[in-house]
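Quick one - inputs below.
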Amino acid sequence: MQEIKNVGLLGGGVIGGGWAARFLINGKNVTLYDPAPDAEAKVREVLDNALTAYHRLTLAPVALRGELKVVSSVAEAVADADFIQESAPEREDLKRSLLAEASRAAGPDVVIASSSSGLLPSRIQADCVNPERVIIGHPFNPVYLLPLVETLGGVKTEDQSLETAEAIYRSVGMHPLRVRHEIEGYISDRLQEALWREALHMINDGVATTDEIDEAVIYGPGLRWAFMGTCLTFHLAGGEAGMRHMLHQFGPALELPWTKLEAPELTDELIEKMVTQTEAQAGDTPIRALERLRDNCLISLMQGLRGQDYAAGHTLRQYEELLYEVSHGAAMTEESDLSQPLRLHQAQVLPEWVDYNGHMTESRYLQVFGDASDALFRFLGIDKSYHADGFSYYTVESHLRHLREIEEEAPLYTTTQLLAMDDKRMQVFHSIYDGRNDRLLATAEQMLLHVDTGAGRACPARSDILANVERIWAAQQSLPKPDGAGRAIGQGMN
Amino acid sequence: MQEIKNVGLLGGGVIGGGWAARFLINGKNVTLYDPAPDAEAKVREVLDNALTAYHRLTLAPVALRGELKVVSSVAEAVADADFIQESAPEREDLKRSLLAEASRAAGPDVVIASSSSGLLPSRIQADCVNPERVIIGHPFNPVYLLPLVETLGGVKTEDQSLETAEAIYRSVGMHPLRVRHEIEGYISDRLQEALWREALHMINDGVATTDEIDEAVIYGPGLRWAFMGTCLTFHLAGGEAGMRHMLHQFGPALELPWTKLEAPELTDELIEKMVTQTEAQAGDTPIRALERLRDNCLISLMQGLRGQDYAAGHTLRQYEELLYEVSHGAAMTEESDLSQPLRLHQAQVLPEWVDYNGHMTESRYLQVFGDASDALFRFLGIDKSYHADGFSYYTVESHLRHLREIEEEAPLYTTTQLLAMDDKRMQVFHSIYDGRNDRLLATAEQMLLHVDTGAGRACPARSDILANVERIWAAQQSLPKPDGAGRAIGQGMN
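Output:
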């Protein structure tokens, strides 16, 4: 495919603005027509959001590389366009006349896509010049982030037009889904609309509120729908026998009033279709492996949402606080053996810690050492209330040696030796070992400074904490200095 | 609430096994009855999966802290239980008689919950002794990970029984949703079932396959459903005017055949209910802030899935490869000014980089330095094919100084000075600056070693790469050594 440079957009609302952002960030020039007087300001607002989002989304180089021009007619918007995307309000007459006008002003081969979320392409292409290049390209809000775009043509559309549009969508990071039959609502909105209408019924009947309806999705089925659709999900719910067992178990429920939508009859033919198609989806992957994939995805999602402290991420955060409260093993007692480096923390290398070489990425070493320091703080008796009072140890300096590569899933544990201390400082030496063979993988020497976080300056630790530090120091000060302590970088070079 | 110790479970399938795992990991003893001869083996398999999952899910201390006993009668399973959860197949007669038997054998006050996904509690509690303690507690697969559990009672259920169960569910990390009206299918499964029946219709009509139906969810609406339900999502799709505009725009579509489910009439009363309830959900948060929250959640999800290289995460990964290919600015040219430390990388502090103190967590410093090294490698001409050929620079040693706290959203840039080199090594000094005021925030001195990754040993860099390193060295070798270079930890202490 020849790369396109100029995109003509018709409509600059929530959807049109989203298209503008996606194309501009991907280096396409955008010429946009919208009759609203504040169209440009609104598009620029979406663009700001989108650019912020892309800088968070990826460390790959992204920037506003295309130029935005807002014009006052359809003809100007499409005159130099290599591709046209229409996002006017969802009215058939309006779209039909807009597309017709665009088709007369644009080059004869330029593909024209409509963002319609459910109208039939055969109808809206009807008045166009060269209707064979008119297609539906239905995106989802926010258009600059969500990858899905449904593509379909009308009776007059040529396949080549769909292929051209799909290549363009892929080049700006999207996932085109070809809808092979021309149906109203297409595929995605039929599913969304069924759920939406059922929600409206429940609210209309007064049996649930919008908030309850949303909760019923986001803490449960919605987490799965982020990466596994309803068909593959139900295949897994069926256990080893998959979809067939699932249909056997829940087939009778299709006749119950569990929704206001009447189900199709569960004929043998439909059962075979469901089973064959879902098995094709699962491919050679055994159910157990799919379950692990599902679990890994769910965990990554919940960890992502924990960062936002929202929805299931909020639940996880609260649960973790509970787990730390329940755990009593971590604090120092009279019986603790302090005479050797302290083994206070263990972890397993997660898939997201691993880089393209298949090894734990370098910053995760420091994360594990940081977790070892946190374990030391808990061991000393530093808890949430200590932090709430405005005191904390900060790391001011670290010296790391990456001695061996660490691969995914490796079980790790750490040891911590106190090298020096005073009332404000601890100089510690952490080591990471492989839990399977006790092999030393990495070391970190760190200087930890006790800080009054409100005043922003160093201050002595509280007396009970300091007493615990001194107990460790009394037990460890005569231990030999570990290999690598006190080093500077590049000894033996230059 | 008094903490419970012993849980009686009836049924050890996919759901019952999931309950067993969740309770055992949270320190409850589980006594389980299931008539299948291989019940224990199956439950232990789920338990293995769950334990692996929890070790990935959280760094908080989790372990198998409860004891599992599989018994051969209902009476044994519930005799010592402080709480009972039934997860038999979804047949009313079966559940009804199981619960009745359990109620006779259990203590009179012990709450009995059924995992039913849609049966009416009034009917299944009918034959129980002390039916006031019988409730529905409907979980979602995998039960050990998904937080949602719908709770509701029948006509004879006391509120206190629901509250007791909800407290127990919360203590094991779940999110109870009280269903306030006794309806078949409850809330969550009515929504799921509407979508499912629509999917069955599409497959029955031959207009889409299970694979297409799943794609139509996971690349678009499903990503939003992981954290924002359909009501709040549509509120945002309406722009500034929210749900009211949304209903105005898409109200007419409710009469179109966009699903086989007939919608309720969109009366003024229904519109007011929808608008009032959604506005209450949004609370004081302006639409723009909700949009940013939505974007942040979507980004975190897509990044999480990228780690799994699955669904939208696969799309993102492919897109990033494209972005790196398109970007040409990063490579060294004849014109590059090498006489000063090289400014090769910039970044913005993301919300998930920030710890409970509101500052960038320590491992993220090393991540930014690692990204600066990656930018240096690209600058030198090292690309994917170089890695594919089996060559790479590894970090073997790092010395970090955390000079200032860095807060969320801060724009950062890095500079890199070459301190020494030979054909296998580069000794570099990276600095992180605040982009708003050029203040120095942190430094890292690193030793980078060129490695034959297949053989697992150091080797000289390819001649063209080495020539570029030498060009930088020629330009920088007479620069003054930066402050902090060559330091060891703890100078001035002891």
